[in-house]
Amino acid sequence: MFIDVIQTMTDGLMIGGLYATVAVGITLVFGIMGILNFAHGQMVMLGAYVAFFFVTAGYGFWLGLAFAMLAMALLGLVMERAVFRFILTDHMGGLTVSLGIILIIENLAAAYFTPDHRNFDPPLKGGVELLGMQFSAQRLLVLALVLVLVTAFYLFLQKTRLGKAIRAMGQNRTGAALVGVQVGQVTAIVFALGSAMAGAAGALYGSLFAITPYMASGPLMKGFILTVLGGLGSVPGAVIAGFLLGIAESFGSRYLSASFRDGYGFILLIAALLLFPRGLFGFSGKEKV
Amino acid sequence: MSVKSETAVMINEAASETAPGENRNRIVQLVFALGWLAFAVLLATPILADSRYLLHVGTMIALHGALAVSLNLLLGYAGQFAISHGAFYGLGAYASALLVTSAGLPFWLAMPLAMLIAAIVAAIIGYPALRYTGGVHLALLTFAFGELARLIAANWDGLTGGPMGLRVLYFPEPVLGFAFSKASGLYALAAAMLLVTMAIVLLVKRSRFGRGLVAIREDEVLASFLGINVLRYKLAAYVLSSAMAAMIGTVYAPIMTFISPELLNVHETISLIGVLILGGIGTFSGPLIGTLIFYGLPEFLRIASFYRLVILGVLIILVVLLVPKGIAGVIRQRLEMYRRGYPLFSWRKLS
Amino acid sequence: MSLLRIEDVSMRFGGLTAVRDVSVAIPKGGLCGLIGPNGAGKTTLFNIVSGFQRPSGGRILFEDRDITALEPHRRAELGLVRTFQGARVFPRLTIREGLQIARHLSDGNATRRPVIDDVMAEFGFAKYADEPAGSLPSGVMRELGIAMAISTGARMLLLDEPAAGLSAEEVTNLQRVIRHVHAAGVTVWVIEHNLNFLMGLVERCIVLDAGAVIADGEPRAITGDPRVIEAYLGDDAHAFG
């Protein structure tokens, strides 16, 4: 029983960390730009394909992960410069445009990558025995990686000059511009950064699950749930919510019903909206009226 | 400030010109009349031509037109962004098919029941999301719901037939001797759905309820201080729009004789939103124009379905960035300016 | 008989007290002002009265009915309607549409609602009737805000700095409009930063400073009150212009 709980817990943390990696990009972009980017899931999907092509071409997982992040950062930069910067802070316009991008990316991906399921060999195989318990080595690796990624992302926002500029913009765009923050540049960087996190999440998803052109909606749905649970625009909120959701899903599907796995988050979401209007942790989200 | 005074000057110019002739009024009215005549002709064509192909295409266009019209009530008039229309369309199809095949109910009873189920589900989702100002919560929550609904349809094999879908082997019972078992009957049914949703939206638009929705779209806070119960209005719009989607879904099942989780794919909803954006969101004819262009043109130009979606994606972005009023919005504005004495075609920037 | 009664209302944000034990009664048919230096709590008090914010303590009575917990739209239905600083109108809708919306909203006060064409004539909107409100000159936009509030069938209007930023001519027009509305039987309470605007307009003035009422009386008496002068000089000597 105890062993079972620990294993379920580890699994929950792993999957929750993966969700959090997706969500931090969504919530940061919303907080800074006021744009709810529905095409974020497409970045996860494309990131998974980049990793897949690198790994199958023999460059290995680590290069694949790095290039997935790099490629998505570039794509994010292009999208921000070409489209999103024209509709900053227009909630509905930005959201609609991102829906258009979904149609473009997903259908092109389906045409060029074919709808076939793809897999690549994870860097670690088999199991690890720890304290008399069996763990999947790759899952532990993913857990370690998401912890590193999310922590690095958080520290970047907290400690670096650029991170502080970004947070200042989240508080007050005009004010940040007045004290000398290059608002346009920083906005583009935020978008690229969020997209890079999506690319990383994609590579990690791909090391565990099947890759298809239609895989985007699952991670996106989880990312959205965390964005609301954590309080719109709050990065730490989304991360904590991610681990909570992962654990809830893991225990729910282990001890209640596995086929209802994706329903737990939704119920949590509705309950949280009813009971905690400002997100689970009271981080005041940025509700721009 | 300078923009404001400039437009004020324009207004004064327009007002001081000689009163725009009765002629111009008549011409504008004529344009509208011709537009609706064209609509009537298009609607009658599949029946008159009696071609299986035209009946099939016409049926699909009419159904999508009805969906676009019903979504426009929520997105266009109330300004609330929900991404669950396809989910409720699918819910209507599945619920009615199960009620007819498993519970043995007559179709015409299954339809209102399916609508009722959709209304209840919409109320449960809408209430928590719509308490917030700004609309982002509704978009997030309804997207999550749409995904969940698709997963349920795909995974609950015992009830829904899973990914393989469900065969539908019934037709709506005849009404007043009018049978729905042939292609022309099913087309008439789809066309009736379109007309019914149009009638509902027209009634709403003209009512106090409709005016309240427009006020909420324009400024929720001001609307509430003018005495509108904002939450109740938004919720009513979401529930009504979703119930209409379910109604159209109940008709879809016997028309296609097959339903599958693909019906609930988010692309369906995004396409509908694209149709509204393209045709002119918040205008009465916009959804019809958008549907004709998106579902009609490619059918006759034989454009493969995936290109159609890619092109729609590009169009959505271009229209939002460059002509947010959409086709119908631009036409309406041009005609209005013409009526007031401006030239019909000019590149002069309109306010 | 007082139409609006504010009893011991306080508003605290964290450690900051924006409104402190304010008690004010506005009589039916009154035309009153609310002045005070920046940050005195004027708008906060209006927000509390109109339902935008819940007070930390005290209660609000409208026609002897406790409305402290009512939503803004319920207060508007009862006839207590506010306007916002600047001009909050529906910028993309025409004047006529805006007035129709305002007129057709709330239940139960059909008899009080004026006819749109009458309102348009009274306010002199006829030549703008079908223009989008966002394209109007700012003075007309302010008047539209008031006209919309009237069209809901308001018994009492709360006007939040209606004259700020208007030209002298527009201010005169606005004063005329307010007098007209008042003459039609609507109780009016106006926030204003500039005392000159209120001087010739209101019959009574309430002065707020640091969240508390420091004076209440005829405008002429107010201007001589040393506490008022001190409050203003400490913040903004231009108030007497």
Automatic annotation (TrEMBL), chain A:
CDD domains: TM_PBP1_LivH_like. Keywords: Amino-acid transport, Cell membrane, Membrane, Transmembrane, Transmembrane helix, Transport. It is found in: Cell membrane. One of its GO terms (cellular component) is plasma membrane. GO terms for biological process: amino acid transport. The chain crosses the membrane at residues 12-36, 48-79, 91-113, 140-157, 178-204, 224-251, 263-283. It is a multi-pass membrane protein. InterPro entries: ABC_transp_permease, BCAA_transport_permease. The keyword RNA-binding does not apply. GO terms for molecular function: transmembrane transporter activity. Belongs to the binding-protein-dependent transport system permease family. LivHM subfamily. PANTHER family: AMINO ACID ABC TRANSPORTER PERMEASE PROTEIN, BRANCHED-CHAIN AMINO ACID TRANSPORT SYSTEM PERMEASE PROTEIN LIVH. This is Branched-chain amino acid ABC transporter permease. It comes from Zhengella mangrovi.
UniProtKB/TrEMBL annotation, chain B:
Its main location: membrane. This is Branched-chain amino acid ABC transporter permease. The chain crosses the membrane at residues 27-47, 53-75, 87-107, 113-130, 137-156, 176-204, 235-259, 271-297, 309-331. One of its GO terms (cellular component) is plasma membrane. The lineage of its organism: Bacteria, Pseudomonadati, Pseudomonadota, Alphaproteobacteria, Hyphomicrobiales. Keywords: Cell membrane, Membrane, Transmembrane, Transmembrane helix. GO terms for molecular function: branched-chain amino acid transmembrane transporter activity. It is a multi-pass membrane protein. It is found in: Cell membrane. It comes from the Bacteria.
